[in-house]
Amino acid sequence: MIFNSIEFLLFGVLFFALWPFMRNNKETRWSFITMASFFFYGWWDWRFLFLIIGSGLIDYSAGLAIEKYRRNKRFWLVLSLLGNLGALSIFKYSLFFAQVGEDILAKIEVTVNLQDSIPEFALILPVGISFYTFQSLSYTIDIYRGRLKPTKNILHFFSYLAMFPQLVAGPIVRAKDFLFQLNRVRIPSTLERWNAIKMIVFGLFQKMVIADNLSFFIDSAFEGKAVYDGALFWWVVMIAFSFQIYADFSGYSLIARGLAKYMGYHFKMNFNHPYLSRSIREFWTRWHISLSTWFRDYVYIPLGGSKKGFWWGLLAMALTMLLSGLWHGAAYTFLIWAALHVLWLSIERITKWPKIMRYHSLIIPVIFIQTLLAWVYFRSADMEQGNGIITKLFSGESSDWAFFQFYLDSIFFIGLGILIELVIFVRKNDQQWIRFYWRYGFDVLFVSLAIVAIIFFRGEGKQFIYFQF
User: What's the pLDDT at 37?
Assistant: First the structure.
């Protein structure tokens, strides 16, 4: 069940119709959220409900055991890590690990087919497994660190873990930020409900109007169906993909935050206009914020961060980024995507070039180009395709300009995405514009225009990109 579907519309209407009657009692509230969320998740494949329930039971039990048996708390934490990361390894990484093993053995001229020995069930990637696994892990880790008290009510725990708005594609919500919210009733004000509606509408606009209308252009290029080629063509394709993945993922996060806000809950911001960043470091404070802060708090800082010296900090950053690459996907291409960000971040740390650059207005497009080059490998099917596209981008090979006319619809939506970011940039940096915006009711106008665009200019319905992670 995806947000931009008739099934979810019916589900949402029914859920929010019943919500006022279910929210007043704790047990009823937690039961309703849990059952609705299990139904939402089970819509794809009910069999994988056993996976999220199993993962949740491990961490719920481990959390209680860590609190009760403090002397053996490390044992229970390790049990939680093994259970969660073990399931993640089986379902997401078994094929990749087999491929890596085959490649290593091939170097010493040993031929073996490890991939065929993997059970068929392990080749199916459960939707959202990376998201709810990290969410569940943060619960036990925070209890181990003494930053959170475990909940003794299993429905309380599962209403946190399986909360349907962010279950399959984030944002990754921490237990210490959300369990206490689930403990109380908070009826949203009229202004909060309006803000929730805005988030949902703008999220659907980003997904259905921007991202979905770019998909045909991008897919035809990467699947080799386009008759066009050359440097300019591939630069336009990669600009399109940069905005597609941003609009797609940011759109999902906005819808999730809006649904939660309408219920009376608060999810932290997950995207903050990352393509307006003036450094790659800043980019990672604006892109998929819930994931980058998760890796910061549970990987980078425990490794020692920059406290152990400059070069150790570089190593810790590199390891953290490479793990982030693997989190996104089990393929060499995701490791190269992460490695490029390691390179950009390392250059920044060593030279501090964004701070000393004289013309600050030029930094934003430079940072965008750096992220764009990394996106090449993120989107490519394999290393060969990624290397080929990078070569074409810098080949100077001329393009048939006719592709502008053939893909005019898609290119229009690239321009629309860029225009929106420019408006946001001006609005954030011009107080007079902000006062003008609110004084003349542009808020209502833009919501109305977004709804019209969703109805009449939506693209072909596509699954959210991050469902595969």
Answer: 94
* Chain centre distance of CA 103: 30
Question: Radius of gyration over alpha carbons of the chain, in Å?
Answer: 23
What confidence tier does 127 reach under pLDDT thresholds 50, 70, 90? confident
User: In which band, very low, low, confident or very high, does the pLDDT at 435 lie, cut at 50, 70 and 90?
Assistant: low
Amino acid at 446: F
Secondary structure of 43-102 in HEC code, one letter for each residue: CCCHHHHHHHHHHHHHHHHHHHHHHHCHHHHHHHHHHHHHHHHHHHHHHHHHHHHHHHHH
For the question of residue 341 being annotated catalytic, the response is no
Tell me the pLDDT tens digit for each residue of 82-91.
999 888 888 8
Asked whether residue 438 carries a pLDDT value surpassing 60, the answer given is no
Q: Is the pLDDT assigned to residue 386 strictly greater than 70?
A: yes
Write down the catalytic residue from 156, 288, 328, 341: 328
Task: Report the alpha-carbon angle 296-159-191, nearest 5.
Answer: 80
pLDDT recorded at residue 35 = 96
What average pLDDT does the structure give for the chain? 88
The pLDDT of residue 428 is 67
> For residue 324, how many other CB atoms are within 10 A of its CB?
22
Task: Decide if pLDDT at 187 tops 90.
Answer: yes
How far apart, in whole angstroms, are the C-alpha atoms of residue 424 and residue 429?
Answer: 9
Residue 99 — pLDDT band, cuts 50, 70, 90? confident
